[in-house]
Amino acid sequence: MQEEIRFHYGRILLVLDPYLMIPRNPSTGKCNFYYFSQAIQMMYKHNLTPYLDLSYSMHHRALEKGYSDIDDYMEVLEQFLHFCIDVYGYRNMRDWIFDIGLSYDPITLKFKSEAAFTDRFIRTFRKIRQLVPTATVGGPAWLSYLPPQQCAHILDTIMSQDILPDFISASLFPYELVQQIKTGTTSMIPATRQPSL
């Protein structure tokens, strides 16, 4: 497919999700980047540049292994960035895209407060700029069913802290799917299959 379409970027969703992508040892707090490394290897094999969605799921399965607070999240982010620098180097990472997206519950479609997201965005942006100054950083991967005025308010707050994102991103979903999720007739989380006896 890559030979026909010539994609430039490959998006890795929920990069900082402790349930899906970066599990941690509960006794040491050290992260395991095996799944992430496999995704990057696949991208490089197909000549794709990583587009990293720096969000995590707020679904209960993720929260059981999730972040206790913003400092806990920042500790994982720093481990993640140092791992990437050590393994892939600044030269490769300067081409990567870091999208600081909303973290939301895929069942209820709700995210944490504006203040919590804005704080995470600002701290994440500054940490990436500190460690990889030439990286492309933006967000907030705004969800199409949320009020656009709320996104504008978040961006105003971020920019009032002398932060100018390199890009603004949005996640778009079909209207029918959003309505089905809101009414509980479907979910963005696939159902767990039970083994047949």
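Above is the first protein from milestone M3; the second protein from the same milestone is given next.
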Amino acid sequence: MAALSSHIPSTRTLIIGRRRAAGGEFQTEVARIEETRSIRAVFAERPRLIQKSRATLIEYDSSVSTPEVAWRKVGEPLAPLPQSFGLQSVVAETRFSPAAPDTFYQQTINEIWPWYRQQGARPLICRWDPMSAPGNIVTLRSVPGYHALPELLAAWHGG
């Protein structure tokens, strides 16, 4: 979790009261800023799209979960340019209360997650919310191609 917890201060600007303080290394490191200047327009709309966020406690199974942030060092190749603010930036959280939690969990990681990967998604976290009812299962996965969802839904509905 160290990489995940260091992602927030590295990529965000600290605001104290109503004053903007220094940003993290991704916003202040001159070489990184120069390398990514040409792609910053893609991310410009992000603050408008993200209205709020919330925190939740999830105890995850580290043998199947991959919530780690992939760090790119200055000088390493940039990732392929996404169509919007990031292919891994839209994450679907799904909560289940199955009758047979252990069986459902095994089916999720052995059958559903491989299918997600075939679709280009990245399964991130799977297990439970300790603050919720016993036997609950929580999954988080990336949603690749979310930018095409309006067209897909329109085609599916015959519009």
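Note on the second protein: Residues 101-118 form the longest helix (18 residues).
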